[in-house]
């Protein structure tokens, strides 16, 4: 790599780099002299000089017009500052174009219950629980909360949380639920965490995500149900 190529890496054109090197090496030059020293076509010199002036690397003075570059140290300072400004801009803006990938974690059996207890006990602002059926165990876990709890389930009115709403019970499904102990639903915690659960006779599974995409999707599904049960009261 020669000096012309190095300067081009800082946003200068080939002609601009050659003209700048000519001025640094020779001092004050006229347009004609710049053309002769740098090999730039004479018809292009004024456009090249105007561009270098706009970039703060060259000064023009006198009649007829003469041109003078900044000192080597000053040029390095200008280019360094420009690079740092560009890097700061890139650091700020580039993450906005990064595709977010939502990560999920799966907890099974006892780990599912322990994770739910942890999430509920550490909640700061609000827990929204939408469950097919609130078992006694689920009720005890929700009672651990130190924040607002909104519960929607087929038997929510059996509990005394901040807000409790029953949805219409299907007697056959309710009977099956009571016989098998099965329950499923989702917890939205602090508008940040989604924890979906399924509790069956031989299996307990919890799916956890803190991804914005999954949170927004879950809210999109759940919020119409919340509005519906509230209107029914």
Compact description:
Helices cover 47% and strands 22% of the residues.
Describe the structure.
The protein has 233 residues and is α+β, with helices and mostly antiparallel strands. The protein has two domains: 3-97, Arc Repressor Mutant, subunit A (Orthogonal Bundle), CATH 1.10.10.10; 104-231, Endonuclease Chain A (Endonuclease, Chain A, 2-Layer Sandwich). It has helices at residues 3-8, 14-26, 31-38, 45-54, 72-93, 110-122, 136-142, 171-180, 212-231; strands spanning 29-30, 58-61, 66-69, 104-108, 126-131, 148-153, 163-166, 183-189, 193-199, 204-209. A seven-stranded mixed beta sheet has the order 4-10-9-8-5-6-7, sandwiched between helices. Strands 1-3-2 form a three-stranded antiparallel beta sheet. Strand 9 and strand 10 form a beta hairpin. Helix 2 (14-26) crosses helix 3 and helix 2 packs across helix 4. The longest helix has 22 residues, at 72-93. The termini are far apart. The model has no long low-confidence stretch (mean pLDDT 86).
């Amino acid at each position: 790599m020669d000096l012309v190529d190095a300067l081009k890496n800082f946003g200068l054109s080939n002609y601009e780099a050659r003209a700048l090197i000519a001025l640094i090496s020779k001092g004050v030059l006229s347009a004609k002299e710049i053309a002769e020293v740098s090999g730039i076509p004479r018809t292009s010199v004024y456009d090249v000089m105007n561009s270098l002036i706009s970039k703060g690397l060259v000064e023009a003075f006198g009649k007829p017009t003469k041109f003078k570059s900044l000192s080597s140290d000053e040029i390095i300072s200008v280019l360094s500052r420009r690079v740092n400004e560009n890097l700061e801009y890139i650091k700020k803006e580039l993450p906005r174009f990064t595709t977010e990938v939502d990560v999920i974690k799966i907890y099974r059996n006892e780990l599912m219950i322990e994770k739910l207890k942890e999430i509920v006990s550490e909640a700061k602002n609000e827990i929204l629980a939408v469950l097919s059926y609130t078992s006694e165990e689920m009720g005890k876990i929700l009672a651990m909360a130190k924040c607002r709890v909104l519960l929607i389930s087929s038997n929510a009115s059996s509990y005394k949380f901040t807000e409790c709403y029953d949805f219409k019970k299907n007697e056959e499904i309710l009977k099956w639920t009571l016989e098998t102990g099965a329950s499923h639903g989702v917890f939205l915690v602090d508008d940040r965490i989604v924890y979906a659960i399924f509790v069956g006779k031989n299996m307990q599974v919890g799916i956890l995500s803190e991804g914005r995409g999954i949170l927004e999707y879950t809210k999109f599904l759940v919020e119409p149900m919340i509005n519906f049960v509230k209107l029914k009261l």
